[in-house]
Amino acid sequence: LLIDWINRTLQEEHIVVKSLEEDLYDGLVLHHLLEKLGSFKLDVDKMALTEKKQRQKLSVIMEAVAKCLQLEQSQLKWSVESILTKDLLSTLHLLVAIAQHFDPSLALPPNVQVETITIEVFLVPVFGPVDDAFDELFSRAPDKLEAVKKVFLQFVNQHVGKLGLSVKDIESQFSDGVILLILIGQLEGYFLNLRNFFLTPASTTEMV
What we know:
It is built from eleven helices and no strands. With 208 residues, the chain is mostly helical. Helix 3 packs parallel to helix 4 (51-69).
């Protein structure tokens, strides 16, 4: 609903948003949206190509939003950093606040709930070579193993999901090397010639 609302609002500017995370973090769409809805000019360049410029641009935008919505800093459920790092929850909070203020007739669905996952980064003490870090994890913090696997699964699916693939079990789905090859190709940004390996290996030889 929010994507459709943005695209309708900015139709004359020929701006098309497809992803809230990927299309709003640099401030360009937010800039156009605020100027269109608020009928005022923001004292900042339309295009911001570097992270420094994007951060400066978002600072101006966030200040304008807080002023228009008459919100104190403690009331904000978003920040420059959270928008810049493509935090979807923060982006949703920001867009809903803007929509409710400038377009109260927009039929936002009531009682929306968002499930969030907080990932805790922890360090496992390693006594010896760095290569032993996972051995230490298995022996010293086995209770953390499932959390680590969950993070790896999210990481893998974030990349192979672009090709319509889904990994649910690391042990079984990585055992033949196919997902690993495709993942490397996605991370390194090159196309893997599928004729160079067996996409559905039927034997140990084909896996090797």
